[in-house]
Amino acid sequence: MSTATNLPVSLYFDGFGEKSHPAIVLLPGLGSQSISWSPRFCLRLADAGFYILRVDNRDCGLSPVLSLAGEPDLQALSRGQSISVAYTLREMAADVALTLENAGIKATHIVGRSMGGMVAQLFAAQYPHKTLSLCAIMSSTGNPRLPPPAADVMAMLLGPKPDPHARQSAWLEQQLAFFRRIASTHLPFDAEYYSTLLKTSLARASSASGTLRQIAAMAATGDLRNEIKQITAPTLVIHGSDDPLFPVEAGKEIGQTIPGAKLQIIEGMGHEMPPALEAEIAALLLAHFNTSLKK
After folding, report:
1. Per its UniProt record, what InterPro entries does this chain match (predicted)?
2. Which of the four pLDDT bands, split at 50, 70 and 90, describes residue 7?
C-alpha cells in the first residue's frame, strides 16, 4: 500500500474558554465534524479551567479537503489488494501538531473518539513533549485480530447512500438508522439530537470523498501497538460495553498496551456520545486531566 507524500495541514478549530488555560484538543471520528462535540460538552470542560480546541480533521468540515487526491479504491482494498492512499493517520497526527504550533500552544491534553482516538494515540506517541495526557474514547489499536465490527454495521457504513443534497430526506433517514444501530442500549435513542446534528453538519460542509480517504488512511495505518506501547503520557481509555463498531475488546487492548493506562468501561454505551452521557464522560475527563496536571 503506497502513501502519497503529504505535508501536514493546519486544521480548523473552535476555541472555548481562556487561551491562557491548559489546552484540550478534541478530535472527532470518521467522517464526523468538530460539532459532534457539543458546545454544552465543551463548555463543561472550559468552565473547569481549560481551553478547548474543537477540531475538524483534514478532509472534513471546515479543514482542508484534499479533493485533488481523488477517491481511493475501497473495493480493491476490501479484496486485500494494495492501493495508493493520500495519507495515513500519522499525517493526521502531524496536522494536530502543526495546528497547535500555529495557535501558539506548546502542549495539550488530547482526546479523540473512534478514528480520532487512533489519531490521538499516534499524537501522544509521536509528540510526547506536546502531550499532557491522552484519552481515547470508543477507539482501537487497529489490531486486525481484534473482534470485527458487526457485519450489518459495516454494511451500513460502507454501502451506497442517497445524495444528501438531491435526496436529503432519504439520506437523513438512512443516517438516522445507522446512528440508531450503533447507539447505547441502556438509553432511549435521541433522534431529535442526531437529526439536528446531521442537518447542521450537512449545511456546514460535506465531503463524501474525504470520508473515503479517511477510511483508506485507517487501513493504511494498520496496527498501532508497537507505537503506542511507547506512550508515556497519563492515559485514560473510555469504551462502551455494547459498542458494535469497535467491540469492547478494542478498548481493553488499548488499556493493556499503553503503560499505566486506566480503563473505564461504561455499561450499555454503544459507539456514540449522546447528550445523556456527556456529564459522566466530562467528569471522567476532568478527573483524569487534574490528576495528570499534578504529576
Report:
1. AB_hydrolase, AB_hydrolase_1, AB_hydrolase_fold
2. confident
| Cα dihedral across residues 73, 77, 81, 84: positive or negative | positive
Q: What pLDDT, on the 0 to 100 scale, is given for residue 5? A: 47
Alpha-carbon gap, residue 168 to 174, rounded angstroms:
10
C-alpha cell at 49: 479551567
> Would you give the distance in Å from CA 295 to the centre of its chain?
26
Dihedral sign, CA of 275, 188, 150, 225?
positive
Strands 23-27, 13-16: pairing kind: unpaired
How many residues comprise the chain? 295
Which long-range contacts does 72-79 make (Cβ < 8 Å, 24+ apart)? Answer: 72/212, 72/213, 72/215, 72/216, 74/158, 74/212, 74/215, 74/216, 77/216, 77/219
Distance, CA of 215 to CA of 212 (rounded, Å): 5
Mean pLDDT of the chain: 94
Q: Could you give the C-alpha distances from 174 to 61, 95, 168, 248, in angstroms and in order?
A: 20, 31, 10, 25
Domains parsed from the chain with CATH numbers:
13-150+207-293 (3.40.50.1820)
